[in-house]
Write a structure and sequence with these properties.
By secondary structure, this protein is an alpha/beta fold. It is built from 14 helices and 15 strands.
Length: about 400
């Protein structure tokens, strides 16, 4: 089979690895528009269950990814001058650049051709192939050429956010919430190497404008943010995208879905097919899981169309709970004033429960007491898990009817 992958991100590279491991005779080419080594991005997170899946599919690349990752276990929340620590599950982070290097090296060792600096504006300019994989991100040109067929739908979040790096190495997954004269602003920070961490800054639109972050040039915006988060940065710098003039590249998150994921022999992968809010830290994991299911579907079905149908059905089903969690997580931050005045330990506990469909409909302190009680009783825990989604749907329908 001849396969062309558009976009050289983790999903397409991992897919090409898995396909080559199944059948070395496959002719696979990955086309990446950027030069080699020029990726933008800081660290990406993943969890132990993902590492186990990587080991089952390709122990060689899994070992390299594990060796190149930074591990953490605790979560720390700073709310103004108050701090609370939560002992959580083990997590991992790896630099995006390192992850791409590992996957590209593994793919090339198996015979995959990777061509950098290859801009592909439309499908007609691709070489003949049995399968075309569009892994070119949320702004996919391959998908947008057929957006009517794919049924692409985008929903914009409310809060502006900015993806940064820092030379401060955070050994725990760290949240910092700071009150300013214009409202609350917060960051999520985690180390991904011995030298750097990711630091994502978010706030309401009103706070963003009040702090003039909507119009400050990037160097001045970074200096202002360093002052706001000085208590956790310990004198370390924040790092933005180099070479940018004008304001820093703030965004509002786009949740993207598609009615169907394939068009003839063209199939969507990763962010081209779906996006999930960054606050659940699963974007790269979900994209690589797409690659796993697409590769296994092709191996089992033997022919392309049934394989693409199976891939789409499987992944859409698997993503339902994740997309719901991501939607509720984003809404938790968009409604931060509802939770921010709670005692820090209570607030951090509800931060950990932000994926719950029930939480937006129950007074926060009451939810906290229910959650603590459920921890002590298996029957209460099962009742909460059963009742939560059902009650949330009922309340949502009632609110919609009132609107």
């Amino acid at each position: 089979m001849k396969v062309v992958c558009v976009g050289g991100g983790p999903a397409t590279l991992y897919f090409s690895i898995l396909l080559k491991l199944q059948a070395p005779s496959h002719d696979i080419t990955v086309l990446e528009r950027n030069p080699a080594g020029s990726t933008y991005g800081w660290g990406v997170t993943y969890w132990p269950d993902m590492l186990e899946r990587l080991r089952r599919h390709d122990p060689h690349s899994a070992s390299a990814i594990s060796d190149g990752s930074l591990r953490w276990r605790d979560g720390v929340a700073h709310v103004g001058e108050r701090t609370t620590t939560h002992e959580g599950d083990e997590g991992f982070a790896i630099g995006r650049h390192k992850l791409l290097d590992i996957l590209a090296l593994r793919a090339e060792s198996l015979g995959v051709g990777i061509e950098y600096g290859r801009e592909v504006p439309d499908r007609e300019q691709l070489p003949e192939a049995d399968l075309i994989v569009a892994g070119d991100g949320a702004n996919s040109t391959m998908r947008d050429r057929h957006s009517g067929h794919f049924g692409t739908h985008t929903t914009l979040g409310r809060n502006p956010y900015l993806w940064l790096g820092t030379t401060k190495v955070f050994r725990s997954f760290t949240f910092a919430f700071t009150q300013t004269a214009h409202g609350w602003i917060w960051c999520y920070a985690y180390g991904y190497s011995g030298e750097h961490s990711t630091c994502v800054v978010e706030c309401s639109k009103a706070t963003w404008q009040g702090l003039e972050l909507d119009r400050l040039p990037q160097p001045q915006a970074l200096r202002r943010l360093e002052g706001i988060f000085a208590s956790i940065l310990d004198g370390h710098a924040l790092i933005g995208r180099s070479g940018l003039g004008g304001p820093a590249p703030w965004q509002t998150f786009r949740t993207l879905t598609n009615r169907t994921w394939s068009h003839g022999n063209l199939v969507l992968l990763g962010d081209a097919a779906h996006t999930t809010h960054y606050s659940i830290g699963a974007g790269t994991t979900l994209a690589m899981q797409d690659a796993m299911v697409l590769a296994s579907s092709l191996a089992e079905a033997k022919t392309i169309q049934p394989a693409l149908s199976h891939y789409e059905r499987t992944r859409k089903s698997e993503l339902l709970s994740v997309q719901s969690a991501a939607r509720h997580s984003a809404q938790w931050y968009e409604n931060l004033p509802r939770y921010i005045q709670l005692p820090p330990a209570h607030m951090f506990a509800l931060l950990g429960q932000r994926h719950s469909p029930l939480l937006p409909h129950i007074p926060p302190q009451l939810y906290y007491r229910i959650d603590r009680a459920a921890d002590q009783s298996q029957s209460l825990r099962r009742l909460k898990q059963w009742l939560g989604p059902r009650l949330a749907r009922t309340l949502q329908h009632r609110n919609s009817a009132r609107g």
